[in-house]
Specification:
This protein is α+β, with helices and mostly antiparallel strands. Helix content is about 25%, strand content about 25%. It has five helices and 13 strands. The strands form four sheets. A five-stranded mixed beta sheet has the order 9-8-7-10-11. Strands 1-5-6 form a three-stranded antiparallel beta sheet, with no helix packed on it. Strands 2-3-4 form a three-stranded antiparallel beta sheet, with no helix packed on it.
Length: about 280
């Protein structure tokens, strides 16, 4: 058994914040770490006692007021995001986010040691336990990267993204997709953000010109889109702008924002229909 549900606070389990202890029905009282993570004004609900390779954990469900998650400012009212393999997230504001947690040298060493052990021996079971702990550590690092990306996206009023099938990407870019956990990030966008706006999966966002809406036949090696209307832009950034426009239900002739276009001579110095420019963030 890897988990035990504790359905009612105060009956099946209770927390003592002054002594850092938890009392579980029919199991007794135990010392627990991390109770400071629960805000003082939180309403404590159910919990789950979970066994992991690194130890036992108590996952507590708390309810907080909606104002607790409201930020005092917004970077922008809406932003579009394009997910990829080389650059994990490209925003329509010009920001590119790249992250990845690969297999550690310790994990490879433990795998080699496991292959040399005898089946059924105590040494083999010991190495398997160390392997499980190392996999858990890598998974925690990937989840931490996802949490930081989601925390940054909450600074926008609306986040528009395309509902891609990331599972199909693994057939071509298996290691790069698995090391980033981009599939888990996309699945958490719907639940973690206040106003997520998904775009249809089969919309040709990467091959469509943002300025005029004309479709181009581009291969994966083409990283820049150049249109006859004079629009020239990075492929991922162009896709993020198209996703933003489609998510808001606007056409190519409708303005989404304003800003100068820096890289195309026919558009240089003229107003651009879209969000552009990196956002300065103070430390």
């Amino acid at each position: 058994m890897n988990s035990i549900p504790l359905k009612q606070y105060g009956v099946t389990y209770s927390l003592d914040f002054t002594r850092n202890r938890v009392r579980i029905q029919k199991l007794g009282s135990f010392r627990v770490l991390g109770l400071h993570q629960i805000p003082p004004d939180a309403e404590i609900a159910s919990a789950v006692l979970v066994r992991k390779p690194s130890g036992y954990y108590l996952h507590v469900t708390c309810y907080l007021p909606r104002e607790y998650f409201c930020y005092p400012y917004r970077l922008r009212e809406a932003v579009g995001g394009d997910f990829g393999v080389k650059t994990k997230v490209t925003l329509s504001s010009g920001i590119k986010i790249d992250f990845g947690v690969h297999e550690t040298p310790r994990l490879k060493q433990l795998q080699r040691e496991l292959a040399r052990t005898k089946k059924g021996s105590r040494n083999r079971e010991k190495i398997r336990c160390l392997l499980r702990r190392e996999y858990e550590r890598i998974g925690n690092r990937r989840k931490d990267a996802q949490n930081k990306v989601l925390a940054f996206l909450r600074l926008y009023g609306k986040v528009v993204f395309q509902d891609d099938r990331v599972k199909g990407w693994a057939a071509l870019f298996g290691r790069q997709v698995h090391s980033s956990g981009i599939g888990g990030l996309k699945s958490r966008l719907r639940d973690s953000l206040g106003a997520p706006v998904p775009v249809e999966r089969f919309e040709p966002t990467s091959q469509e010109c943002y300025a005029c809406g004309k479709k181009h036949d581009l291969s994966l090696s083409d990283r820049v889109i150049r249109c006859g209307c004079g629009w020239s832009c990075d492929r991922d950034l162009n896709a993020a702008l198209v996703i933003l426009r489609k998510g808001l239900g606007l056409g190519p002739d409708q303005a989404v924002g304003s800003g100068p276009c820096p890289n195309s001579s026919p558009w240089r110095g003229k107003p651009l229909r879209g969000y552009w420019g990196a956002i300065p963030i103070s430390a």
